């Protein structure tokens, strides 16, 4: 360090212009490199998806195809208006082209033109009761085949055939004159809060005021230009249907929307913090030229870091987008201490060479030690489990190192160059710090008792800070797509929380039996705690379940008699029995030992009908077999997600489970792990650097005391304010260990030069206040972020830095005074 600072001193004094020109060229080169920088909007890329619920979540999203689906929410007051708008919107989407090709591969569910498809789907099911009946429905099915019930249903069917609905209903009535489709709809619906309205082929909410459509775009969301054009065209379509509110939700719209928000957050946080720290610098030194002293080195440091980001990480995400504001808030600290010391020495009458030598060889060492402790704190983030946090550590550590280099070379060269232009220095105001020391010396015991007691109380309260692992913090606030997603979940998601189960294997029939076993076992164990369970077995029962249903149907029932009753009822109502032959054949097949239908064959047939979308939602043909998914909705007040997962594993050991609650628990564990690993590691690195700088344990302890007390205050205040630690803001604690130590280092370093605490606080305290304020501004700008996780990181860091400033100006001087008093008493005794 001393060798480097001597070289920096020589270059600054003898070649200032060369240094400035060289860094200007580097700045231009960094600007050119950053043109490749992109914005990553997928929050899953920030998290470790190699294990646990997160791994299963990614498999679910990618494997079952709904990762790239576009969901279309229509909201209105009248059902008829919703359906009419949906029909028109579907035609518009089908005709939409992007870059000369159709924008969407498929749009489902089917609309009026797909009525034939729905008839085909029903024709597959209705002749085979074992496909749509539950075992408990068998008795009700048989009761409907009494002579009185058959006659009543035939009269209803005749009424529909002669009504105005006849064109749309005719094929359905002919296939199912006894309305057995009600059992089918019940099975498909399960306990789900919504189900397709098979009359029109729409997904309608229970209150009939929201309609959901799903479309599959022809290109992936990462195709940036196509996604941009698609979002623009979709926005134009909204105005063509004024009677309803239309919202588009999906990765394509989210990618474009989040990229805009990330760009906005980067610019506002960087420019806001940059402007505010420069304003603080101007207010402190009252000369415009000083803005160049710090502005140029900061710009070089930030721009070089953006070059690193474009070359190594490739882009910025919702966490790393904060790097520029953090670098500005921390990087200016180095400039403040260098400029403040040089200004003080020049105004005290020292010559240019002597003032610069004192500045770089004395204060410069403290600046580099403080800078390296902060860099070390950020480098500990490389061990975090969250990729976004790791990348933030790389970028900020790189940026701070660049700032140290540029401020050690550019700022001294700038000062030397400006001096030759006639720049003059006058003594700086002390901001009342000179009056602080007499007060501290007079009341240091009281101050120590109060501050140490508060630190103990803060540490105790800090143990009560809640650690959370939810993903809500990664979702931007005030974004139309997120608000639409929330409304869609309210209308169609139902109550409770969700859990998804993935099963894989070669035998589809066996997998269906496992799904049925899971559904039955959970229902028996938790009862009303399981709100509903949706899976492929609702559409395609296993052969074992089919056999059980058939056995219950045959028990005590004469289907030949039922077929004769149906024929007589049709003739009595003047209807031709031959037209309704399918139902009569169905009754006769049950009577003559019908066998189960193989599930694999059913899957192939149903994928050619409008049921393709729900079927594909629950099954995919994977390598060497099938992959099935099962959606379980549960009441969190009655069912614990971990217990639910364990119950599923006991039934099917190879089952894989995921869901936002399980993901949150996994993230919670990661936060605890990172906290218990990174905080001690950061503290260890700080101690190592302090020992390397001060050599003696006494001064290491002195420099460390305001930091430890400040961290205790931060945790206590967080607990009192109800703040929670989450996967993003938990890193504030190891960061504060590296950032908050700087104040103690500079005060102790200056005290050791003259052994006068009053002089140390009077001359260094002003710079300490300035650096703390600028760092708080840098982190504070993050509190305006659209992402709650980033906003909470900024707020927590501001509290921690402010607490460290307070303890550095009150606790540390009081400790030094107390040690001095003790040393004086010992000398007098001797």
How would you describe this protein?
The chain is an alpha+beta fold and 830 residues long. The protein contains 30 helices and 15 strands. The strands form four sheets. Strands 2, 5, 6, 7, 8 and 9 form a six-stranded antiparallel β-sheet that branches. Strands 11, 12, 13, 14 and 15 form a five-stranded antiparallel β-sheet that branches. The protein has a two-stranded parallel ribbon with strand order 1-10. Strand 6 and strand 7 (202-204) form a beta hairpin. Helix 1 crosses helix 15.
Relevant terms:
6-stranded antiparallel sheet; 15 strands; alpha+beta; 66% helix; disordered C terminus; single chain; 830 residues; 5-stranded antiparallel sheet
Helix- and strand-based class? alpha+beta
Poorly predicted sequence stretches spanning 5 or more consecutive residues: 191-200, 823-830
| Silhouette | elongated
**How would a crystallographer describe the biggest sheet?**
6 strands, antiparallel
Helical fraction equals 55-70%
Radius of gyration: 36 Å
Q: How many strands? A: 15
Round the mean pLDDT to the nearest integer and report it.
81
Helix count from the secondary structure assignment:
30
Q: Whole-Å distance between the termini?
A: 41 Å
Strand content: 5-15%
Give a short synopsis of this structure:
With 830 residues, this protein is of the alpha+beta class.
Helix-strand layout with pairing:
Blueprint: H1 2-14, H2 16-33, E1 38-39, H3 52-63, E2 70-75, H4 79-95, E3 97-98, E4 101-102, E5 104-108, H5 115-125, H6 138-143, H7 147-161, H8 166-175, H9 181-189, E6 196-197, E7 202-204, E8 210-217, H10 224-238, E9 245-249, H11 251-285, H12 290-313, E10 315-316, H13 323-347, H14 352-379, H15 387-419, H16 433-462, H17 480-492, E11 497-505, H18 508-526, E12 530-535, H19 543-554, H20 559-572, H21 581-591, H22 599-606, H23 612-618, E13 619-622, E14 625-634, H24 641-651, E15 656-658, H25 660-694, H26 697-721, H27 732-739, H28 741-754, H29 757-780, H30 788-829
Parallel strand pairs: 1-10
Antiparallel strand pairs: 2-8, 2-9, 3-4, 5-8, 6-7, 7-8, 11-14, 11-15, 12-14, 13-14
């Amino acid at each position: 360090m001393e060798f480097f600072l001597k070289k920096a001193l020589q270059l600054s004094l003898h070649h200032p212009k060369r240094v400035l020109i060289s860094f200007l060229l580097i700045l231009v080169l960094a600007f050119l490199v950053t043109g490749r920088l992109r914005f990553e909007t997928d929050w899953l890329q920030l998290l470790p998806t190699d294990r646990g619920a997160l791994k299963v979540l990614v498999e679910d999203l990618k494997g079952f195809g709904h990762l790239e689906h576009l969901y279309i929410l229509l909201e209105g007051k009248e059902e008829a208006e919703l359906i009419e708008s949906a029909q028109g919107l579907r035609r518009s989407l089908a005709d939409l082209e992007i870059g000369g090709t159709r924008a969407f591969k498929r749009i489902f569910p089917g609309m009026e033109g797909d009525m034939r498809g729905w008839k085909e789907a029903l024709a597959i099911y209705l002749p085979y009761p074992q496909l749509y009946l539950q075992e408990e429905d068998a008795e009700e099915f048989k009761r409907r085949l009494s002579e009185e019930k058959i006659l009543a249903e035939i009269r209803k069917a005749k009424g529909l055939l002669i009504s105005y609905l006849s064109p749309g209903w005719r094929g359905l009535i002919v296939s199912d004159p006894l309305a057995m489709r009600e059992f089918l709809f019940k099975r498909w619906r399960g306990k789900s809060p919504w189900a397709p309205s098979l009359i029109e082929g729409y997904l309608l909410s229970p209150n009939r005021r929201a309609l959901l459509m799903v479309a599959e775009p022809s290109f992936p969301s990462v195709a940036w230009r196509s996604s941009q054009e698609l979002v623009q065209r979709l926005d134009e379509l909204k105005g063509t249907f004024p009677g309803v509110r239309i919202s588009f939700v999906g990765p394509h719209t989210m990618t474009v929307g989040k990229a805009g928000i990330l760009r906005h957050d980067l610019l506002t946080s960087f420019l806001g913090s940059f402007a505010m720290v420069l304003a603080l610098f101007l207010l402190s030194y009252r000369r415009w030229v000083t803005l160049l002293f710090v502005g140029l080195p900061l710009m070089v440091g930030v721009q070089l870091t953006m070059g690193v980001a474009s070359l190594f990480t490739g882009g910025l995400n919702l966490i790393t987008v904060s790097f520029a504001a953090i670098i500005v808030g921390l990087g200016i600290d180095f400039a403040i201490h260098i400029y403040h010391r040089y200004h003080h020495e020049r105004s005290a009458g020292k010559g240019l060479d002597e003032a610069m030598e004192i500045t770089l060889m004395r204060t410069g060492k403290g600046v580099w030690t403080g800078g390296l402790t902060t860099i070390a704190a950020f480098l500990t983030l490389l061990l975090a489990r969250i990729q976004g946090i790791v990348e933030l550590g790389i970028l900020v550590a790189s940026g701070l190192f660049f700032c140290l280099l540029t401020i050690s070379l550019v700022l001294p060269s700038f000062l030397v160059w400006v001096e030759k232009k006639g720049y003059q220095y006058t003594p700086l105001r002390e901001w009342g710090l000179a009056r602080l020391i007499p007060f501290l010396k007079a009341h240091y015991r009281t101050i120590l008792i109060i501050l140490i007691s508060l630190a103990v109380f803060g540490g105790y309260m800090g143990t009560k800070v809640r650690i959370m692992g939810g993903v809500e913090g990664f979702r931007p606030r005030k974004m139309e797509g997120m608000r639409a997603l929330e409304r869609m979940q309210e209308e169609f998601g139902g109550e409770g929380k969700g859990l998804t189960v993935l099963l894989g294997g070669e035998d589809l029939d066996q997998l269906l039996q496992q799904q049925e076993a899971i559904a039955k076992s959970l229902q028996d164990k938790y009862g009303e705690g399981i709100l509903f369970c949706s899976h492929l077995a609702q559409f395609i029962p296993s052969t074992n379940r089919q056999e059980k249903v058939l056995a219950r149907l045959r028990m005590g029932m004469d289907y030949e008699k039922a077929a004769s009753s149906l024929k007589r009822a049709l003739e009595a109502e003047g209807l031709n029995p031959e037209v309704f032959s399918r139902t009569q054949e169905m009754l006769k097949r049950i009577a003559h030992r019908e066998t189960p239908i193989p599930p694999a064959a059913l899957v192939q047939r149903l994928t050619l009908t409008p049921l393709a979308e729900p079927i594909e939602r629950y099954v995919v043909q994977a390598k060497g077999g099938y992959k099935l998914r099962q959606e379980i909705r549960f009441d969190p007040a009655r069912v614990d997600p971990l217990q639910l997962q364990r119950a599923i594993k006991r039934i099917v050991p190879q089952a894989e489970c995921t869901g936002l609650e399980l993901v949150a628990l996994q993230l919670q564990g990661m936060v605890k792990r990172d906290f218990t690993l990174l905080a001690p590691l950061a503290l260890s690195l700080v101690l190592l650097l302090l020992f390397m700088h001060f050599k003696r344990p006494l001064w290491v302890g002195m420099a460390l005391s305001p930091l430890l007390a400040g961290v205790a205050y931060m945790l206590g205040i967080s607990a009192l304010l109800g703040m929670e630690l989450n996967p993003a803001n938990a890193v504030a604690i190891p960061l504060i260990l590296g950032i908050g130590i700087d104040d103690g280092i500079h005060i102790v370093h200056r005290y050791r030069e003259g052994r006068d605490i009053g002089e140390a606080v009077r001359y260094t305290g002003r710079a300490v206040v300035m650096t703390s304020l600028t760092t708080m501004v840098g982190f504070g700008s993050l509190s305006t972020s659209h992402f709650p996780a980033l906003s909470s990181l900024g707020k927590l860091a501001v509290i921690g830095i402010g607490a460290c400033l307070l303890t550095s100006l009150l606790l540390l001087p009081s400790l030094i005074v107390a040690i001095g008093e003790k040393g004086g008493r010992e000398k007098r005794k001797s």
